[in-house]
Structure prediction request, 171 residues.
Amino acid sequence: MALLFNGLAVGAVTMATLLPVAALGYWLLIGDGDIRQMVGLSAEALPVIAVGQRLGAALVALLTILPLAWALVRLRVCLVCFSRGKPFASEGIRALRDFALGSMLASIAQFFSHAAMSLVLTATAIAGHKQISLGISSQMLLMIMFAGVIAALAWAMEKAAAIAEENSQFI
Prediction:
């Protein structure tokens, strides 16, 4: 099992590193036509897509991704504790809780990022074509629910570890 947990820990850190880099690269390299298609506007309605808009879109994406990246780094700590055969180590339990909270925060941030992204991407659109859009999906809701359950399990593990520590002091 240690090999599995160590492999997952490496995967978590790799994802935490690559996600922000990929988001930044995506928004700097995506074509103007692809952005227009994303917001559903023609070249006449959205004639210019400025570098500032691309950087703004990258910033919005990073604000959504960074909590997830932090959560993945914290997951690594939890998985390392698991690989060492210490699933009830307080450091690992705190890391699991942080993973859940970071994942939840990233999912909640996705809701707000849709509105912010639409404002950023249509900032240079001609009058009457600026947009604000809201997005909510079952994936967001499921991730928030999943993260809440993981946070509750981490809380229960914390209580169990405290009881085990207390019981170990009895002779």
Summary: The two ends are 32 Å apart (CA to CA). The mean pLDDT is 92. Helices lie at 2-29, 32-39, 51-83, 90-121, 138-168.
